[in-house]
TrEMBL record:
<protein>
    <submittedName>
        <fullName>Phosphatase</fullName>
    </submittedName>
</protein>
<dbReference type="InterPro" id="IPR036457">
    <property type="entry name" value="PPM-type-like_dom_sf"/>
</dbReference>
<dbReference type="InterPro" id="IPR052016">
    <property type="entry name" value="Bact_Sigma-Reg"/>
</dbReference>
<dbReference type="GO" id="GO:0016791">
    <property type="term" value="F:phosphatase activity"/>
</dbReference>
<dbReference type="Pfam" id="PF07228">
    <property type="entry name" value="SpoIIE"/>
</dbReference>
<keyword id="KW-0378">Hydrolase</keyword>
<dbReference type="InterPro" id="IPR001932">
    <property type="entry name" value="PPM-type_phosphatase-like_dom"/>
</dbReference>
<feature type="domain" description="PPM-type phosphatase">
    <location>
        <begin position="173"/>
        <end position="386"/>
    </location>
</feature>
């Protein structure tokens, strides 16, 4: 019998482009599945694309108003009974550490009592194993990346998407979600994050220029920041070295507006550098407010710029939103800017959604204001929900440690 541990081992041994075919064969044997389908979320997070007939997939399904989309949005199994066929289709989220990749749909013969709980649990473990293998396989095959494309990416967008860490992630202390638009033709906006045992680093940037020039500038900045972070440097030195890398390449002719943050996970203390950045909003206890920061020079504008972090604290239940100027500067067909008041309403109207869904929902509201025409600039929304470190972990701290 192919238990989940055996499934994981079999997937690891399969060729990267064949892992889904291998899993489908295993599930057909183990569960007598009549069909097994993997649907990948597209770059715009509006469609679920079946993996078949690559490089073009079969007819996509909407994330909203579809049974697989319900599992994708709720990140829970969703079962659909078909009496005419005497089958049950189990739709399961395919996700890794909060990063939503797609949905695995398995159609089984319907028993008198539906699907047993232990079978549902085993099916989800198979979906989880597939998710991990897809992330690894994308280093060595284009199969899954091709399946995510509802249309062709521009070269600049290709560069930007390959640079990103994911579109959502979660740990006990926080949940993160981010989205870029236009998804298939983004310019210079970008984001990055990385966590260790006690620290979460977040970067949000608004690159200067358009197309390849903007993508190259953002690639230089993000990799310079990663290089400094991985060398163990503090936030000020990370900003300084990235600033020097950009200035050394462009001599002040090009620069990057950037927001850098370090969250101390045990306490919620935050260091932040506002280098000509996107704006930060906070939703706390139902109140929406912009966090006022001391603006410093964008990265790469001048030689030897010194950056000084500011500090604030987050509390359990806080929601932070990082929003690029492509949102604020978006014009309606009549030439009206998207107002701060409209943005505050959007933040409030999405307050019940999980962090992973907020950016897509807010950008959809922005599209309603801007209309269906081409965007003049790309837009970025990142949402961070702060939960705080669980008390059982805080209890291991020495007496007198901040909580």
């Amino acid at each position: 019998m192919d238990r989940p541990s055996a499934v994981e081992r079999t997937l690891r041994e399969a060729a990267p482009h064949e892992i889904f075919d291998v899993l489908r064969s295993l599930m057909e044997r183990r569960f007598h599945a009549r069909s097994v389908e993997l649907l990948m979320a597209d770059y715009a997070m509006t469609r679920l694309q079946p993996i078949e007939a690559l490089p073009r997939t079969l007819q996509p399904l909407p994330v909203h108003e579809s049974a697989p989309g319900r599992a994708f949005g709720a990140q829970e199994q969703h079962c659909v009974y078909d009496g005419s066929e005497s089958t049950i289709t189990v739709h399961m989220p395919v996700s890794v550490r909060g990063d939503r990749l797609g949905v695995l749909s398995v159609t089984l013969p319907a028993g008198a009592d539906g699907v047993a709980a232990d079978v549902l649990d085993e099916l989800q473990q198979c979906a989880d194993a597939l998710a991990h293998e897809v992330v690894v396989a994308e280093r060595d095959t284009d199969v899954f990346l091709q399946a995510r494309r509802a249309e062709r990416l521009t070269l600049a967008a290709e560069m930007q998407w390959q640079l990103l860490p994911g579109r959502s992630c979660a740990r006990p202390e926080y949940s993160l979600g981010a989205q870029l638009e236009p998804a298939y033709a983004i310019f210079g906006d970008s984001f990055d994050w990385s966590a260790s045992a006690d620290d979460l680093y977040v970067m949000v940037s608004n690159g200067m220029g358009e197309g390849i020039d903007a993508a190259l500038l953002t690639n230089l900045a993000v990799n310079a920041l990663r290089n400094a972070r991985r060398a163990g440097l503090d936030l000020s030195d990370q900003a300084y070295l990235a600033d020097q890398a950009i200035y050394g390449q462009h001599r002040g002719d090009r620069h990057l507006s950037t927001l850098l943050l370090r969250f101390h996970l045990p306490t919620g203390d935050v260091e932040i550098i506002d280098a000509g950045s996107p704006h930060v909003w906070r939703l706390r206890a139902g109140a929406v407010e912009m966090i006022e920061l001391e603006a410093q020079m964008p990265l790469g504008m001048f030689e030897d710029t010194a950056y000084v972090p500011q500090r604030f604290a987050v509390e359990p239940g806080d929601r932070l939103l990082f929003i690029s100027d492509g949102v604020y500067d978006a014009l309606s067909p009549g030439g009206e800017k998207y107002s701060v008041r409209a943005l505050a309403r959007s933040i409030n109207s999405t307050r019940l959604l999980p962090a992973s869904q907020v950016p897509r929902a807010m950008l959809q509201e922005l599209l309603g204001h801007r209309g269906a025409g081409p965007a003049a600039d790309d837009s970025l929304v990142m949402c961070l929900d702060w939960h705080g470190r669980p008390r059982r972990e805080l209890g291991d701290q020495p007496s007198g440690a901040s909580t």
